[in-house]
Amino acid sequence: MSVSSLSSLSDNETPLRSRRNDIKLNAFEKYDDKELRARFRVSKETVLYLDSVFGSTIKPLTKRNRSLQPVDQILITLRYYATGSYQRVIGDIFHIEQPSVHRIVHRVTVKIANMRSLFINMPTAEERLEVANDFYAIAGFPRVMGAIDCTHIKINSPGGAQSESFRNRKGYFSLNVQMVCDAKLRIRNIIARWPGSVHDSTIFNDSPLCAQLERGDFTPMVLLGDSGYPCRPYLLTPILNPRTPAEEAYNRSQIRTRNPIERLFGVLKRRFPCLHYGLGLKTTNIPPIIVACAVLHNIAISRQDEVVEEDDPLTIVEEEIMVQPSNETNQNFIVRTSLVNTYFSG
């Protein structure tokens, strides 16, 4: 995954005067941890951690024109994720010109997105019992290793013959991004490349994760999804028309147990509002930004670097898509029926 350009966000911004002679702000030193967290959405410790991982690879080769150090470059990128506005990054924090911000965000985004394999993975065999126990503690639903759903990230119209494929059912242009999370809201899988008109189930069916589940790589563990997905032995969905108390109990438990994925979308978009307000970049350059934000989210969880949700004005609402019952073989419902009879009939 590469980012070739991050230049289109500020097409309508007015040119800034040259800031070559301005004194650049040392934001890391100026702000205490609380102030820095409010502006950049992570703590000072997390910024230093990122610097320790890849700072040496983005360090300027010369001090000419007071080149920005790795920590400053990381903060500029985080400020973009926190606002979605290049002009605000330039104008109110670092006093550097737009082309410099463009290059820095490109450079740092690639470095963070490349950490994906370290921080975004399905539970290992050793982790699955703990993950399942965390889900079971929510509402007594057994053998769950993840909750799955999709969320839309707003984009500008990409133009061209295929542009309408990015218009979602709500009428705006978007990417439809699939994620799987555990009960602690850690992102376990992400696909961030499909146009907004593509159905959630299509994204899942085409994914490497679906192929792994079909092979039985995670048996007997299951995912929980909403009614936008077809029921499978490894992907359990609500019963559309429950007829018995056991089926109603199953639905209540299923809905509560997959709630973490809905919470995840809210937490992620509150921490990085660029994902809520939209990314005005070339379409091909947006997936690395989304993946980088997901990586940072997991890093923050691992470092207990929290953002206080109740003080944030954003309200994130994810709408469930219903699908009609299919003519698939009853084999797809055996696991669900067995769970209803075993765990929810008493």
From TrEMBL:
Keyword field contains Disulfide bond: no
UniProt family annotation: Belongs to the HARBI1 family.
Pfam families, per database record: DDE_Tnp_4
Function: Transposase-derived protein that may have nuclease activity. Does not have transposase activity.
Subcellular location: Cytoplasm; Nucleus
Main subcellular localisation: cytoplasm
DDE Tnp4 domain ranges (all copies): 148-298
Cellular component terms per the entry's GO annotation: cytoplasm; nucleus
Keyword Isomerase: no
Coiled-coil residue spans: none
InterPro entries found in the cross-reference section: HARBI1-like, HARBI1_animal, HARBI1_dom
Protein name: Putative nuclease HARBI1
